[in-house]
Write a structure and sequence with these properties.
Layout (H helix, E strand, L loop, with lengths): L1 H17 L5 E15 L8 E20 L2 E5 L2 E4 L2 E5 L7 E19 L4 E32 L5 E13 L10 E14 L4 E12 L15 E14 L2
Antiparallel strand pairs: 1-2, 1-11, 2-3, 2-4, 2-5, 3-6, 4-6, 5-6, 6-7, 7-8, 7-9, 9-10, 10-11
Length: about 240
């Protein structure tokens, strides 16, 4: 709660002190996210780690520092989704996570060009994991059947039971705060003297584990998220 209040106060001071002194833009953006979980699952046989698509949306505020460079604050809500799928004889069993974060990126925005402009971003971000859902399919042990193949060998089979529920956070296990770095690039085109249109791609790399240290020989988990967004900004000065 203290972090949220501090960020809000900083943003307001930043806006009101400098908006009248430099060229500034305020806009909105929306797009898709593609996230993967960087971790080691070699201890889980017949398993693959798959990235999943989500959404991202937010606002962006640009303040010109000097010609060709801006400071950018772009709070957003971004999904960081992934699945663990079983393969081979376990095909059909999976567990899929839909994790929603609120983020506060702080970015240095370099821009070049006259009419059609290209830009590059680099910066840091903080995020809070505020909601999650988990769904999947697991074997139903009460539906087991024993079948014989043409060689006479017996094989036990199960029906799969599905589930879809809200993720229950564990205070001892889940690290809901995330910090990391950002790189990105895109293009910007002014529609007129008031509005500008842009498209961009961004990579968010977490430097903090998704888990707290709750057991020995723990395998870390890091979010890596790519977003592609469309947006529009309005010149304030």
């Amino acid at each position: 709660m203290f972090f949220k209040k501090e960020c809000f106060i900083t943003l307001m001071l930043f806006t009101f002190v400098y908006v009248g002194k430099s060229q500034s833009l305020l806009g909105i953006q929306i797009g898709l996210s593609n996230s993967c979980l960087n971790t080691n699952i070699n201890n889980r046989i017949y398993s693959t780690n798959q990235s999943n698509i989500g959404f991202t949306c937010g606002i962006t505020f640009h303040l010109q520092i000097k010609s060709g460079f801006c400071a950018e604050i772009a709070p957003d809500i971004t999904q960081k989704n992934y699945s663990i799928n079983r393969t081979d004889s376990l095909t059909g069993i999976y567990e899929s996570f839909v994790n929603t974060y609120s983020q506060l990126p702080l970015i240095v925005h370099g821009i070049y060009g006259n009419r059609l402009k290209v830009f590059a971003d680099i910066g840091l971000y903080g995020a809070y994991w505020f909601a999650g859902k988990v769904k999947g399919k697991i074997p139903d042990i009460f539906s087991s059947n024993t079948n014989s193949n043409i060689t006479g060998e017996s094989r036990e089979s199960f029906q799969l039971s599905g589930y879809n529920e809200k993720y229950q956070f564990d205070r001892k296990r889940d690290n809901r705060w995330e910090f990391g770095w950002i790189v990105g690039a895109g293009m910007q085109y002014p529609l007129n003297k008031k509005y500008s249109f842009f498209v961009k791609g961004t990579c968010y790399q977490s430097l903090t584990d998704q888990q707290k240290k709750y057991m020995v020989n723990q395998i870390p988990k890091y979010n890596q998220t790519f977003t592609c967004s469309l947006g529009m900004m309005r010149y304030l000065h």
